[in-house]
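Feature request disguised as a bug report, sorry. It would help if multi-protein outputs had a clear separator. Right now it looks like this:
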Amino acid sequence: MNHYFEIKDLKVGFKTFEGQKRVLDIEHLAIQKGEAYGLIGESGSGKTVLALTILKLLTMPPAIVESGKILFNGMDLITKSEHDMRLIRGKKISMIFQDPMSTLNPVFTVGEQLRQVIQHNRGVAKKEAAKIALETIDLVKLPDAKSIIDKYPHELSGGQRQRIIIAIALSCGAELLIADEPTRNLDVTIQAGILKLIAELQRELKVSVLFIANNPGLVSAVCNHVAILQEGKIVEKGTVRDVLRNPIHPYTTALLNTIPKSKKEKIDLKKLIATDGAECNGGCTYYARCLKRQGNCQNQSPTLHPIEGTHFVACHLGLEGSEP
């Protein structure tokens, strides 16, 4: 089956003083056209590295793509030259970065930055770019676009800056939008507005979205399918309903159980994560912290296998009749 966007056997490493360390080892991930797909993992799991690998923005070296394919509309992005990628970035694939304040240039107005992106990628005159910039600001539902366009980043709130970043990402007709924790550092009410905006734009413009987050609740509000990333590996994937309501992998369960169900609830991490310092010898990457580990988990690395329908898990639990 041909997918709109597909990652196959992707392995990415970094050169260090202690040798080469692998940070991504993804068997398979596929996104259909017009779909919102969630990627969940804790800090350091490799989420942003994956996003930068897709756009070929990693510094090489020390980063090295060891093997694998990233297929977009039938094209393998791994084999593309920098010249080819410049024609793809912005026009075909765009990214919303985590921190809008560091993404926007503080010495230019947001309108000037938006116009420059449009002129560079669309090849239109300055007057036409200014018109498109106003329309794009309206698209992300910022009131009084004519006033906003002449302001500098520091004159806008965090939520307004993030909407400008979304406007820039969509200004040149991108088909795939990578949202790397777009609500990070925003308060809860602003988060809700940004999530609603992304969901609405995804439906209206029919763009595909790879939504990266460390909070399962955010992903469930936007996405249809989800993958759980742990130590650079996808350990569970499927529909949001299957994975978040019926988690199989102990890591997925631990992630969900770290979210308090009420203001009074206190989370005891000792009941969720093993702390005895057990070592892994080439087996499951979650072995050292897993409360349900078995003997074969220490030296046998599990691969993704189907549970039911599109629900897959990389865990020895559930195999051969054993229950998680």
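(second protein starts here, but nothing in the output says so)
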Amino acid sequence: MTGKLKKPANISIVALSAKCLELNPIENVWQFMRDNWPSNRIFTFHDNIVGHCCEAWNKLVDQSWRIMTTGRHQRARRF
């Protein structure tokens, strides 16, 4: 946080603790992906890992509404 930062009047900066990962919307999206798609698997090759991750990412992109709802954690709604 610096006083030198010039920001538009309609933007609010909210300082988040580094230990509050649940308030970072992308962390919730990553957690959802880990819990639902590429988890509980044994990967034998690097290409196998990359393929499963790409498949999971494409599933998520096809469900854009899920990004919005998953990224918006209940505890983060107060901001």
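Even a blank line would do. Unrelated, but nice: The two ends are 17 Å apart (CA to CA).
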